[in-house]
Write a structure and sequence with these properties.
Blueprint: H1 2-28, E1 48-49, E2 56-57, E3 63-67, E4 70-74, H2 77-86
Antiparallel strand pairs: 1-2, 3-4
C-alpha cells in the first residue's frame, strides 16, 4: 500500500517537472506560458466623473467641455447640455 502511494507521489512530481520544462520552452520561444495566461491584465484606465449624473467615463471615449480652465467629461450630450444650461 505504501509502495503505491510513493509511486503516485513520484509520478505527480515527474508530471509537474515535465510541464515546468514545457512552460520554460514556450516562454523562451516568445510565447506565454500556460500558467501566466490568466494573470495578464490590461493596463488600468483613468476614469473621470460626469459632473451632472455622476457616471464614471473614460476621457478618451467621452464628450468634453472646457470651462474655466478645467476640462469636464460627460457620458452623453444630454448631460453636457444640462451642464451648459446650469453654468
Amino acid at each position: 500500500m505504501v509502495r503505491w502511494i510513493l509511486i503516485a507521489v513520484l509520478l505527480i512530481i515527474i508530471a509537474r517537472l515535465f510541464w515546468r520544462v514545457v512552460d520554460g520552452v514556450i516562454a523562451a520561444a516568445g510565447g506565454v506560458p500556460r500558467g501566466r495566461r490568466a494573470r495578464t491584465q490590461a493596463p488600468p484606465v483613468h476614469l473621470a466623473r460626469d459632473p451632472v449624473c455622476g457616471t464614471h467615463v473614460a476621457p478618451s471615449a467621452s464628450l468634453s467641455l472646457r470651462s474655466g480652465g478645467e476640462t469636464h467629461y460627460f457620458c452623453s450630450e444630454k448631460c453636457r447640455a444640462e451642464y451648459k444650461r446650469r453654468s
